[in-house]
Amino acid sequence: MSAPAITVFIVDDDPAVRDSLTLMIEQEDIAVEAFESAETFLAACRTECRGCAIIDIRMPGMDGMQLQEALSERGILLPIIFLTGHGDIPMSVRAIKAGAVDFLTKPVTREKLMECVRAAIQAGERMFAQHAINQEAMSHLATLTEREREVMALAVTGRPNKEIARRLGISHRTVEIHKSNIMHKTGAANLLDLARIAQKGGVSQ
Predict the structure, then answer these.
(1) Where in the chain is the domain with CATH 3.40.50.2300?
(2) Of the four, 125, 141, 162, 186, which is 20 to 30 A from 57 by CA?
């Protein structure tokens, strides 16, 4: 199955703003979907959506910051660019602290818009790549037994087999067997690779 197309999602209750932004972005051969409210966008957006979202800070009903929170809760990895009026700068700063990648002040120039959009799309692709790595690590670790997870947590800190055996109350040979099983199940090439997988999967001692 092919990856979803890179799309810029515009969420603004002002149709003139939606039309203006859509025109500027489509002229750069980037797909655009526009929504008149946060609620309609949430109903359409899926976790596999790729690209970025340009969201108006102030909208009737759910506002931009509430939408940002809702997307985060749903695990939707879309970088957010907030669109703001001059009086909304302090709110935008708070939004960036909450994870937004940038904010634009109305009216926005085409040059500034596209600069922000391209940066946000790149940030989104990095987020997706990292998420895929983390998910792969989690799937590998899910196959381990509880004892294997205990052995791995100690092994990736550099502890020798004898110390692992002593700490867990098992034989040196049993530790070796567990480590062999762990390497096979996780697909780790070496201890350093295993440490990376453990970190991504949240296994530590």
Answers:
(1) 6-133
(2) 125
Nearest to 37 by CA among 18, 3, 60: 60
DSSP of 15-62 = HHHHHHHHHHHHTTT-EEEEESSHHHHHHH--TT-EEEEEEESS-SSS
Reported CATH class of domain 6-133? alpha beta
Please, which residues have CB within 8 angstroms of residue 117's CB and are 6 or more apart in sequence?
8, 25, 28, 30, 52, 54, 81
Provide the CA 181 distance to its chain's centre, in angstroms: 31
Considering only residues 74 and 97, tell me which one the structure prediction assigns the higher pLDDT.
74
Q: How far apart are CA 145 and CA 161, in angstroms?
A: 18
- State how far the alpha carbon of 5 is from the alpha carbons of 1, 52, 62, 80, in Å: 12, 11, 27, 17
User: Is 11 in contact with 41 (CB distance < 8 Å)?
Assistant: yes
Q: Per the structure block, which two tokens stand in for 50? A: 């790729």
Domain 143-201 has CATH 1.10.10.10: yes
- Render pLDDT for 50-64 as a digit per residue (tens, 0 to 9): 899 999 988 999 999
Q: Output the six-digit token pair for 107.
A: 């009216």
- Determine the Cα–Cα distance for residues 127 and 138; give it in Å rounded to an integer: 16
DSSP secondary structure code for residue 87 in this structure: G
Which of 127, 9, 11 lies closest to 65, judged by CA?
Answer: 11
